[in-house]
Design a protein that fits this description.
By secondary structure, this protein is an alpha+beta fold. It has six helices and seven strands, in the order E-E-E-H-E-H-E-H-E-H-E-H-H. The chain has a four-stranded antiparallel sheet with strand order 4-5-7-6. It has a three-stranded antiparallel sheet with strand order 1-2-3, covered by helices on one side. The N and C termini lie close together (11 Å).
Length: 191
């Protein structure tokens, strides 16, 4: 486990030679960070194809969002907590996607997406493609949000483990950190 900051000001957790980009109030992104992530978008396409093979048509409502777009979005809402400030949105990483069911308008706004077959399919299969259900119900005290439509790419290995443990990313990173500390203390961790 290693926590490091990139030249662009992004914070990463490295574990088993795989990086997990982490964004929150204490780890904001700089104004010049971001862009669409090719690996995440390819995995998303494969996941959508698999869902379609099972009769579920998904589409991305929101994907990558620039710092400027997040700035505008945050200031467009009259209700606090409907959006996060620029630099604090996972959408700026290019790794987060708000997913909805094709042809069923509005399921995001009224939270009914959580009651669809598409949502159940995503919960069962998203980890196979490297995605996690990022802001689950009942974990708002840890994540700060409940959004049944928000899925985040972390890679297959991490996603499988997070799915198996049934915990949010924040708790997973604490576990990873603890494991790394134990490796170091036991002499198996290198440095």
């Amino acid at each position: 486990y290693e926590l490091w900051e990139s030249e662009e000001g992004a914070w990463y957790f490295t574990y088993n030679d795989q990086d997990i980009l982490f964004v929150d109030d204490d780890h904001p992104l700089s104004s010049d960070f971001g862009g669409k992530d090719r690996t995440a978008n390819e995995a998303l396409g494969l996941m959508y194809d698999a869902a379609e093979d099972d009769g579920i048509i998904l589409y991305t409502v929101k994907g990558y969002r620039s710092y400027g777009k997040q700035y505008d979005l945050y200031r467009s809402y009259d209700v606090p907590d409907w959006a996060v400030k620029e630099g604090l949105s996972e959408h700026q990483t290019g790794l987060a996607f708000d997913i909805d069911l094709m042809g069923v308008a509005g399921t995001m706004q009224d939270l009914s997406f959580e009651k669809t077959d598409a949502f159940s399919w995503l919960l069962d299969h998203c980890a196979e493609y490297g995605f996690i259900y990022r802001y689950p119900r009942g974990k708002e005290d840890v994540t700060g949000w409940f959004e049944p439509w928000h899925f985040r790419y972390v890679g297959v290995e991490h996603a499988a483990r997070i799915h198996e443990l049934n915990i949010p990313l924040e708790d997973y990173l604490l576990i990873v950190r603890r494991e790394r500390m134990l490796e170091i203390l036991s002499g198996e961790g290198g440095d």
